[in-house]
Each structure stands twice: as C-alpha cells, then as structure tokens.
Amino acid sequence: METYSNYNLFVILFSAFGSLFTGYGLAVIGNTLGQPTFYTTMHVPAVPTDPAYSHTRTLIGAANGIFFGAGFVNCLIAAWTVDALGRRSTFRLAAAIGIVGGTLQCAAVNQAMYLVARAFTAIPVGITIVAMPIYYSEVAPPHSRGLMAGAHGCCINLGYFLAAWIGFACYYAADSTFGWRFPNAVVVLWAVLLLVGTLFVPESPRWLVQRQRNAEALKILCRLHHDPSDPEDTFAHRELNLIVKQLEQDRGAITGGGRWQLFTEKTYRKRLLLALMIAIGGQNAGILVINNYNVLLYESLGLTGSMPLLIAAVWNTIGFIANVVRAATSDRTGRRTALVYGYAFTMGSFVIATGLIGKYAETPTRGWAAAATVFLFIYVVGYGTCIDPNQFTVVSEIFPSHLRGQAVGISLCGLFLADTLWLELQPTAEGAIGWKYYLVFACLGMTSGLALEEIDQLFGKTVVAHLDDHPLAGTAVNGASGETGEKDGAVTAQHAETAQVKQ
C-alpha cells in the first residue's frame, strides 16, 4: 500500500530549510528598504522628495536587478549540479555559499559591498529554488506529492513571513544599523540550518539508482514509505522496480534522442515552453514587485513610520496561510484548474487595486488608500491559494526523470529573468510614471493563464503506468520517448513514474 512514514515527514521538514532559505533570501530586501539606517549607511536620501533621490532609485533597482540576474545564471548551474553532484551535495554547496553571502550582506559598509553581497546571496537562492522541488518530488509518494512538494512554496512564503516580521520588529532599533543588519544576518542562520539538515536527510533514491546504487536506494525507499501493515515493504520494492525500469528507458531515450532532446523533440519543447510560461506567468502577475517594494508602495499611500512594515508583515502572513491551505488540498482539487482560476482572480483584484492606487494619486484620501490596500490583500489570497505552490509542483512533475533537472533549471530561469526585468525597472518607472507602472501587470495577467489550457492536450488524463499494475518483476514504464503525450495523451509518471498531472 502506498503510504508515507513519519521519517518521510521528517525528511521533508529538514529539507524545507532550503526552501525557507530561498524565501528569506528573496524577501529580505523588502524590509531592508523600510529601515531608515540602511539609507544612512548607503549614503543615499530616504525621502522621495529629496532632489538626490534618483540615486536611491538607482541603488534599489541595482540591488534587485543584480540579485535576480545572478539567480538566473545559477538556476542553470543548479540544473547541472543536481545531477552531477547529487541532491544533498547541491544543498551543501548552496548552504556554504549562502553563509558567505549572508555574512557579506549584513556587514556591508557601502553600496559596492552591498551589491556584491547581493550577488553572492543570489547564488544559493538560484540553486535551492531549482533543487528543492526536484528533491521533494523524488522522496514523496505519488499521491501525496502535491502536499509534500507544496512544502517548497509554503516554506518560501514562510521565509517571506519571517523576513517581514523580523524587519518590523527591528524597525524599533532604528537609531542603530542593527535595524537592517540583523534581518540580513538571519540569512546566515537559515544557510547553517540547511547545512546541518543535510546530515539527516537521505540522498534521492532516483539519483542513487542512476549511479547503480540500488541497494542504498531500496533501503531509503523502505524508510520513507514504510507501512507497518506491510512488513516486507512491497510498495517500496515495486517503487524501486519502476525507478530502475524507467531509468533503463531513460538511458535508451538519451542514446536515441541525444542529450539535447529537450530542444530537439517536439513533445519536450512543448513541455518546456509550458513550464517557462507558468514560471514567467507567475511573476508577470506582479507578485514580487508588490512584495519587494511593498514598504515603498504603502508609503506612497500615505503610511508612515513602522506602519508600512506592519502592513507588509500582515500581507505576507496572509500569503503564507493561503499557501499552506493550498498545499494541503492540492492533491484533491487539482493543479491546472487552480492555476487557471488563480490567474483570473489575481488579474481582477490587481486591476481594481491599480485603479484605486491611481485614484489615491489624484485624490489622496484615507478611503482610497484603505480600499487599495484591501484589494492588495485580496490579491495575495488568490495568488497564495491558486498560483504560488502549484507553479513549482507542476514545473517539476511534467518532465520525465532523465530531463527533469535540466528542464526545471531552465524553466525557473524564466522566473528570475522576469523578476530581473520588472524589479530593475520599478524604481525608475515609479519615479517617471508612478502608479501607471502597475498597469503592465494588470495586462500581462490576462495572458498568463492561457497556456494552461494546453495541459489537457499535452498530458491528457491517462497515466502510462501505475504502481498497482507492476509486480516486483514488472515491465518497463512506457513514456520515455518523445512520442509520449503527443500520440497517447499520456504523461510519464514522475515519482516512481506513477503520478499524473492533476487536472
């Protein structure tokens, strides 16, 4: 019987420090911009009406642009390291670099040092954002993958949640640089915990089988999915059997189609395009533009002092709760449908919020500001319950195992590429055209959900193989060739090659 053990949950929780590190590393810039002493340390004005504030805009844009540009490059690096070094070694590499980057970031004494530190911190974030969903999908049993793989999105949002509240608390140390240095120093804590966590989590069984270490893989599968009512661990043996046979077909697929088949075979190109559109579409909804600049946004709505940080913290709290709810129900309600409705919902709420921000710019009253804030909160509920956890799960599960690391790395490069553009432009665009910059995301949100209708055609509703269909000496799983999904409407099952894309 398919099940997961307490050890399986333990593994997910420990490895979740990688996702937590990802989220916190992405989020810390948002509350840093709300700390008055940050601007003093960087020798730039903090007040938008200051004639020299253009220098501040340049610094803010560069801090985000460099971070996401470096993250883009390191998504590609992660696509190689997860296969070449293994999942755990990749985590350790990211943690070690994260310790260095976080230390430099909190110790920065000028703009140049801070920007270099941002680039260093982006390296492990780019690695973990790719490596973690791959690992989750490979240690979770098929029908619990949405719950367990959803831990990636949830823990990323937990990182945002913690960064926001730590930043709010540190505001009251505003007379010293502790206010912005301590939140940046916490990056090191998560990196250290990730490094320690790698001592307690197992290597991916799939990666071990790729290295002909089947006995080790079986031992891990038995621990992960042990069922007390099945002392012989029949499910784990069947799972290993399917992994072995799928990898045999994968090797044949690589031999027949070459290592570039992700780009040369039509079915894989379509999957890659879909994954890119999902990753980019989530960012085109404007989520990080709001989050990374939320303090500045709330200040533009008339809030002062610690209130922008407080509202930002509450906003992130709601986003985190929404992610947890979605992860818990993902396997029952389907992922494609949630993404389609999510794009429509977030687009509608973002359009209304943008209009209200525009009205406040014309008539600055508390009523318009409050209404705009309410719709920003409605927006994050829709994003958290429908888009955020699902995008990582879908991107990691729609590719066959022999292409997964490469494909996920390239797909999530799209996420960083989109954010590099939007976050680099925001400070300058906001200074030039104000609230009208948000109209870009209102328009882009209309197109983000369209590609999701292709999932039915690409992957259908038929699973090529199922664990229950395979005795211990079962046959190989179909679906490794480029014809999978094109002819049969079938999707290669991913964890032990058994799961289908949830509709």
From TrEMBL:
* InterPro entries hit by this protein: MFS_dom (IPR020846), MFS_sugar_transport-like (IPR005828), MFS_Sugar_Transporters (IPR050360), MFS_trans_sf (IPR036259), Sugar/inositol_transpt (IPR003663), Sugar_transporter_CS (IPR005829)
Q: Where is this region: Disordered?
A: 476-503
Recorded hits in Pfam families, A to Z, give: Sugar_tr (PF00083)
Q: Which PROSITE patterns match?
A: MFS (PS50850), SUGAR_TRANSPORT_1 (PS00216)
Q: Name one GO molecular function term.
A: carbohydrate:proton symporter activity
What Gene Ontology cellular-component terms does the record carry?
membrane
Keyword set includes Transmembrane helix: yes
Where is the Major facilitator superfamily (MFS) profile domain positioned along the sequence? 11-460
Q: Where in the cell is it found?
A: Membrane
Q: Where are the transmembrane segments?
A: 7-29, 59-81, 93-113, 119-137, 149-174, 180-201, 272-290, 310-328, 340-361, 367-386
Q: How does it sit in the membrane?
A: Multi-pass membrane protein
What SUPFAM superfamilies does this protein map onto? MFS general substrate transporter
Which keywords describe this protein according to UniProt?
Membrane, Transmembrane, Transmembrane helix, Transport
- Keyword Membrane tagged: yes
Specify where it is mainly localized.
Answer: membrane
The similarity comment for this entry is: Belongs to the major facilitator superfamily. Sugar transporter (TC 2.A.1.1) family.
Q: How is this protein named in the record? A: General substrate transporter
Organism (species): Exophiala viscosa
